[in-house]
Design goal:
Layout (H helix, E strand, L loop, with lengths): L25 H11 L25 H11 L4 E2 L2 H6 L6 H8 L9 E3 L6 H11 L1 E6 L19 E6 L6 E5 L4 E5 L4 H9 L3 E2 L12 H6 L7 H4 L2 H4 E8 L2 E4 L13 H4 L8 E8 L1 E2 L3 E9 L2 H13 L6 E5 L1 H14 L4 H12 L7 E9 L1 H17 L3 E4 H9 L8 H6 L2 E11 L3 H19 L6 E6 L6 E11 L6 H18 L18 H20 L15
Parallel strand pairs: 2-4, 3-4
Antiparallel strand pairs: 1-2, 5-6, 6-10, 7-11, 8-9, 8-10, 12-14, 12-15, 13-14, 13-17, 16-18, 17-18
Helix pairs in contact: 1-12, 11-14, 17-18
The chain binds flavin-adenine dinucleotide (FAD).
Flavin-adenine dinucleotide (FAD) binds next to strand 3, helix 7 and strand 10.
Length: about 550
């Protein structure tokens, strides 16, 4: 285990040693944000302290704990307040609201940290005694994927923390694959590969605190997904412990032996079993990385350029196209953090004069690979962007995005401390439907946020960040003054329902990369159809006949 869990915030983001750097202009930033949200002041909202938490009485008795101690050893069966609170929920806005309010829901009775060869025994014990098991990697789920929930009549709830399973088992240099235990954290995995000249290239924004098993189980996407693929693309094989016994998937580069069952593991969300090992595809560590910014007169031209980049099959690792609201939000945020020099103010006015006005959009494009290939890709990118009336902003914009790419999540805690909510949600659709979906979801969120607002106004930002031949994802960030104390959850629900309904009605998936968990379950049938959801239920019943695996997530409870 490379990260000591006790160094992390149990009710916020990341390491307790780290915080968002507001810099010397912190007061100006808060003043600007207040104006942007149209509120006169911030309302301090304190989070409940760990010592003041009322944790539910554990329901597992001493015999049950002794059985777990027999399997994993006394040191790895933990039930102190920190462990139970840390593992009670994930890190969505809803989770943070509840944790900060001291609501740990059905916190686990105990947390176990098995080695890979002990997981099967834990599941066999849980199945025999009717105890719910929640697999927990980094706990960064934003869809309620790790919240403690038990099925009807289940005798207790154990969270199975995977992070002691963190070894590299094999690196096949000829095949460019590696097999890891699934609880390895992102940074340790990439350090291990880098020492051998390889990369997996999966860098979600939560990279520092999420695990290989969690990436696969949530069917996640890294920021360089255009080059390295989503979890379902790079997964070669998996080994799972299930209540029915060990399941090893196929591991061939390609096969016509019926449907590919690995695709059941990618997105299985702990509801089918615990992924203990995974084999993944590797790439050579890129010798060149090039990230740059571009500006477009409007979102339509930006989207057209991204579509052309993908459909012309240019070597792209990252695209991130902000819509006009997100573009102006980040420009103003940057200005508040570092007031611009006279030259930069002049450059801003010059941009407007050149036709990059209020509707302008910023695009970050990244290329990774061999130097020569990156150069070719850059030239092709430049030509496509010019055709769509885009203009280069240079390397500075790309480099600063790359430098800060894991820093932004730290800003959520200080916002919550001041009564400002931040939630995110995402979807994907075809190119031909992208603008319609963007407008529908943005408008639905704005209307719901306005209806539930007590004061001020919400900001709804969006960007395109994962793109394909046939379509792309849309990622929305909502920043809003919170409702009065006690009504925050209702406000969240109103916005979430409006956004999810709009997604389902306008041809988007309920999730491009966050997963289903419990939050998206009501909309799953819109993606899969009724028969599809029943099929998923039948697969779960085969692997987990008594429903002990992560109850209430991905598959509706019976
Ligand atoms: C600030 C922030 C930024 C994020 N950015 C991204 C992003 O860029 N891209 C992205 O894809 N996601 C992102 N996420 C969501 C989240 O980080 C991902 O879903 C990630 O893949 C979860 O990994 P984890 O190890 O934290 O898993 P957890 O949160 O612990 O678990 C996620 C789900 O997988 C299951 N699970 C975990 N490990 C196993 C296992 N070994 N076997 C079986 N089931 C298991 C859990 O039961 C749960 O259902 C972000 C989240 C936050 C809070």
């Amino acid at each position: 285990m490379t990260i000591d869990r006790r160094t992390l915030r149990w009710n916020g983001w990341g390491s307790r040693e780290q915080a968002f750097e507001f810099g010397e202009h912190a007061e100006d930033i808060w003043a600007w944000l207040g104006e942007a949200l149209d509120i006169e002041d911030f309302e301090p909202r304190l989070a409940t302290a760990l010592d003041d938490l009322a944790l539910p009485e554990p329901t597992l008795d001493a015999d049950a704990r002794a059985a777990l101690v027999d399997i994993v050893g006394a040191e790895w069966v933990r039930a102190d307040a920190y462990e139970r609170a840390f593992h009670a929920r994930g890190r969505s806005y809803r989770d943070l609201l509840l944790l900060r309010a001291g609501d740990v829901g059905s916190a686990p009775d105990v947390v176990v940290y098995p080695r890979a060869d002990e997981v099967q025994a834990v599941l066999a014990w849980a199945a025999a005694t009717g105890v719910a098991v929640v697999p927990y990697g980094g706990g960064t789920s934003v869809v309620g994927g790790v919240s403690g929930e038990r099925g009807d009549g289940q005798a207790g709830l154990v969270t199975l923390d995977t992070t002691r399973m963190d070894r590299l088992l094999e690196l096949d240099e000829a095949s460019h694959t590696a097999t890891f235990e699934a609880g390895i954290y992102g940074p340790q995995l990439e350090r291990t590969l880098d020492a051998r000249g390889f990369t997996l290239g999966h860098y979600p924004q939560s990279f520092e605190y999420s695990t290989l098993g969690g990436w696969i189980a949530a069917r996640g996407a890294g920021q360089q997904s255009c080059r390295y693929g989503k979890a379902e693309d790079w997964l070669v094989a998996a080994k799972l412990a299930t209540p029915r016994g060990v399941w090893r998937t196929e591991s061939f580069p390609a096969s016509a032996a019926g449907p590919d069952l690995r695709q059941l593991v990618a997105g299985s969300e702990g509801a089918l079993g615990v992924i203990t090992e995974a084999t993944v595809k590797l790439h050579l560590t890129p010798s060149a990385r090039d990230y740059r910014g571009f500006i477009f007169p409007d979102f339509e031209h930006g989207v057209a350029a991204v579509r052309e980049l993908l459909q012309s099959e240019v070597l792209i690792s990252t695209v991130r196209l902000s819509d006009p609201t997100e573009t102006s939000f980040f420009a103003e945020f940057a200005q508040a953090r570092k007031p611009p020099s006279r030259t930069r103010r002049f450059a801003g006015r010059a941009l407007e004069a050149m036709g990059f006005g209020a509707q302008r959009c910023v695009l970050i494009v990244g290329h990774e690979g061999e130097r020569a290939a990156v150069e070719v890709a850059r030239a092709r990118t430049g030509a496509i962007i010019r055709r769509e009336r885009g203009m280069p902003l240079g390397r500075g914009a790309g480099d600063s995005w790359y430098r800060d790419r894991f820093a932004l999540p730290y800003i959520r805690d200080p916002l919550l401390d001041r009564g400002v909510g931040v939630d995110t949600l995402e979807t994907s659709t075809s190119w031909s439907n992208l603008h319609r979906l963007h407008r529908a979801v943005r408008d639905a969120i704005s209307t719901a946020a306005a209806a539930s607002a007590r004061r001020g106004r919400a900001m709804v930002l969006a960007h395109v960040s994962h793109a394909y031949l046939d379509g792309a994802s849309l990622y929305f960030t909502i920043i809003f003054p919170q409702a009065e104390p006690g009504a925050e959850l209702e406000q969240w629900r109103a916005i979430k329902v409006a956004a999810s309904d709009a997604i389902a009605e306008h041809g988007g998936t309920i999730s491009h990369h966050h997963g289903v968990g419990s939050d998206h379950l009501p909309w799953l049938a819109a993606d899969k159809g009724g028969l599809g959801v029943r099929l998923l239920g039948a697969i779960k019943r085969e692997l987990d006949p008594t429903g002990i695996m992560n109850p209430g997530k991905l598959v509706p409870k019976p």
